[in-house]
Amino acid sequence: MKKKLILTLGLIFMVLSIFGISFEELYLKNLNSSSDFYKAELSLKSAEVEMKRINQFFVPYLQTSLNTFNVVKVPVENTQKKALEELLNQFKNLLEDSKISEELPDKLKDLLEDCDIPEEILGRLENFLDEMPDTIDVETETEIGGIVFNSKGEIVGFGFSLDTAFVEVFGTNIGLSFPFKIYFKGDKSGFYAPWSTIQYKTPTEQTVEEKLYEQIAIVASRDLKKVDKADKLNTEAKYYSALSSYYFAQTNVFITTVEDVFNRCYNEKMIEISQREIEILNNMYETATEEKVKEEIEKQILTAQKVFEGLKASNVSLEYFEFTEDLYNETRNLVDNIISQNSSVSKNTGERLDLKALKLSKEASDIQKKFWFLPYVPFSTLTFSVQPFNDFNWNVRIGFEMTIFDKGERKLAADTMKSELASLTYDESTKKIEELIRGLETNKKTLYYDINIAQINLKNAIEDYERSQDLYKKGFITQNDLTLSEITLQRSKLTLEKTENNLKVNELRLMQQYYVNLWGDKN
Known about the structure:
It is a single chain. It is built from 14 helices and 12 strands. By secondary structure, it is α+β, with helices and mostly antiparallel strands. The two termini are 45 Å apart.
């Protein structure tokens, strides 16, 4: 098994070494391993969810909440009233029945024959019975924090509600509240959903029904400390800020990947040239006879070794990918195409996503300043609920919130709402962006000068090499001297190429400041 695994890995590495890695594969590899991009992507997803809340009229979501305090009256049939009704009906039947003497005992018969029960007494008794309630409260249930206690203080179950918010209108959440109950003692034991009916017997063996659907309520809740317009602007600002961060995280990976390929190519070739130079200088040192010449060559060797060690050290961090000449050429052509296609890009910073976010935050701050007093308002929420299946029973609740031992929190919140932080942040960010762009433009001009200098140096190196070839042919210089002249020419070519690549990267960073859709951008 181990041999097969080693063989498989060997084949994979052999294939990769033959075909090499493409720029797209390298870019995606770096993108997937970037924590900045991952965080920016999560922030953008979170901001998109918040944007959906404020842009869509119908935004359903579920939340559960426990009842805080509620006294529930359990109706039980009034057996006393029922007995009185039966007694009254018997008296009526006795008075109206012509066969009283035959059906009653002698004492009761004599009493009814001697007494005349007036209709007024019967009427009053009927009115009394009509005014008596059909049910009496022989038992109560109390819910505290969702825990149900009976009238004796025993825990008999749990009650909670499932609140569904369907829409938010001007800061008011509108939805439905569905009751649920769980009993684990007595005849009620079980789980009851909103469509359930709870049946149980009272101590007097009367059957009682409690219909939970009657407690379904339409609920409208309003946060009294919420400034809707400011919250909406802040939500939009958060979205554009997250979108900006996502763009920069992604394009930074792209530009860094380009730089890595360019630098890897330069380092690889310079390392190879330095090795050749050191080898030739060592040969020259061994064949030299004069001490001064040897000393001068030794200085050159030390300088070349210093450059060589520096190149090796800087190349270590770039050895995470397999470098090939094809990868370098592909990257260079890709960057050239991007620059040529965006040569006429708009350079208006006013439409930058980050500045747009800061503008929205500034607008929100201007609105919040008018409501600086809200932290001092003790009323936090206003809730209205109505039960459409229970004779439209309704109630209004006002949430009260006041910190008794305030240590300056309310004043700090009020001062924050009144502050000029958003305006200052916008001004400072605008200034920093202008300075950054100005720095990139200045660097662009400097690189053009560097390219001109490198071109002159290359021209001189070509002339020196051609002169060395003539001298070598005439026998005035050695093969080592000619090779050193060739190395100088190669180094001049690489310096010019590196400077041109630096200019290309600078162009990419300039386009990034104007939010140009670079290659691979997922926006």
